[in-house]
Write a structure and sequence with these properties.
Length: 161
């Protein structure tokens, strides 16, 4: 159970920066993954992530998923394994993966959906409020990756272009 959103019961509040694992990836949606299906994914993720103290953001647009998840290392490892087995997407590309003592970027978001057009603004906002240099560096790398091309082309292999 959780005392506060994102903090397991009994968490040491004098130690505000827990060890968190983060995973940011993109993938391509399988046929049939439309807005309605993505809505169902978000609803299920919100319930599951609340139980496992995982927070994050999901972006879907142009048939591409971007997702940032953060939580306890064991919980994130389990979720990553589940993501790789999920038939609703393929070509999972890890953009950033780390573990360290830091604050959450999305402490109150069990999983929120952000429209593709808004992802840069969301990441810029997170960068502007990031106090942890590891988070700031990861956000700068992600923004640089997004600036490298249109959302439709990110995560595609050379043979697909």
């Amino acid at each position: 159970m959780l005392d506060e959103i994102g903090f397991p019961r009994g968490a040491d509040l004098n130690d505000p920066a827990p060890v968190l694992a983060t995973f940011f990836y993109c993938s391509r949606a399988a046929d049939g993954a439309d807005d309605q299906e993505v809505g169902r994914i978000v609803e299920l993720a919100q319930r599951s992530n609340l139980t496992h103290a995982i927070t994050g953001v999901l972006v879907f647009g142009s048939g591409v998923f971007f997702q940032w998840i953060e939580g306890a290392p064991a919980q994130i490892e389990n979720l990553i394994a589940s993501l790789h087995r999920d038939p609703r997407h393929y070509d999972v590309v890890a953009l950033d993966r780390s573990e360290g003592k830091r604050e959450r970027l999305y402490p109150n978001w069990e999983m929120e959906r952000v429209e593709a057009d808004d992802i840069r603004a969301v990441l810029q906002d997170a960068l502007g409020s990031a106090e942890d240099e590891h988070n700031a560096a990861a956000l700068r790398r992600i923004l640089k990756h997004l600036a490298s091309g249109p959302l439709q082309s990110l995560g595609r292999s050379q043979s697909d272009q």
